[in-house]
Design a protein that fits this description.
The chain is mostly helical. The protein is built from 11 helices and no strands.
Length: 281
């Protein structure tokens, strides 16, 4: 009887820890959602970012639900959800960087002739709107070149030169009194190094996640790499959060959070959602 009671007490403590951790994560998810959405507002851009933030929040919550369940038969969904984190954070940053891009897409989708069963030429594409093939090369600015000479991908070098270098500097200064695994990269890397790190991580992650989403592997070993799936999720959360955090410091964008709120939300998300929280249940 004593042994039975001790097992019951042990299980009760496990359930209590699980409940406490899930409540904590709820705060982290809310902070992450606000970083994606930005400041309260109105109009089309705010509506777009609100939708993206809701998608991000649902995907993030479901990643934790699947991993916490320890049901490895559902782990394949984590790759799809992790890629969604990258895509929604990139789209949210694009909405701050180049509003025309998302507003044009929304307008076309509101057209009565829009057919979701056909490929849309205005759709946001990773290889065109986020990371282009030659977009990592430093741009040579010249009045003798037209706009077509410069790539417009979110994580391409032209946007680093025009907007993101200053935004990274401001975002790092705002967080200089804080610490943690996500903040460390902001504090220890110069703007170009950080952006190239984010660009490289995004390219590698998107490729790796897509291989599982599109069933590229022809054997079961890769799909059974549960540790790799979780690692990709951890990295996707961190990189997507850094992207939307920095985008809140763009000086030409509307709907950005104040620096105090942005830093507070990043710290809360980092505290509740970082690597240390995986596998604690």
């Amino acid at each position: 009887m004593r042994g039975f009671n001790s097992v019951r007490v042990h299980r009760g403590r496990i359930y209590q820890r699980r409940a406490a951790l899930k409540r904590s994560r709820g705060g982290g998810v809310k902070a992450a959602v606000r970083l994606v959405r930005g400041a309260e507002g109105y109009g089309s851009l705010y509506s777009i970012r609100t939708h993206l933030a809701e998608v991000y929040g649902r995907s993030l919550s479901e990643i934790f639900n699947i991993i916490d369940s320890r049901d490895r038969s559902r782990y394949y969904m984590v790759s799809y959800l992790s890629r969604t984190l990258l895509e929604t954070s990139a789209a949210a940053a694009l909405s701050r960087l180049d509003p025309f891009r998302v507003l044009a897409l929304r307008k076309a989708q509101a057209d009565g002739q829009y057919d979701p069963g056909r490929r849309s030429l205005l759709a946001i594409e990773w290889g065109r709107d986020v990371i282009t093939k030659d977009g990592g090369d430093r741009p040579q600015w010249s009045s003798l070149k037209g706009l077509d000479a410069y790539s417009r991908g979110l994580l391409d070098s032209p946007w680093l030169s025009l907007a993101f270098a200053d935004a990274i500097s401001r975002s790092a200064d705002a967080a200089r009194q804080n610490s943690g695994p996500w903040i460390r990269d902001l504090r220890e890397k110069d703007p170009e190094s950080l952006w190239r790190f984010i660009r490289g991580q995004c390219a590698q992650l998107y490729s790796s996640l897509s291989k599982l989403v599109h069933v590229e592997f022809m054997d079961k070993l890769a799909e059974s790499d549960h540790a790799g799936i979780v690692d990709n999720a951890i990295r996707s959360i961190k990189i997507s959060m850094l992207i939307v955090y920095v985008s809140n410091f763009l000086d030409h964008s509307s709907g950005c959070l104040s620096s105090e709120i942005a830093v507070g939300d990043l710290m809360r998300a980092q505290l509740d959602l970082a690597e240390v929280n995986f596998g604690r249940l």
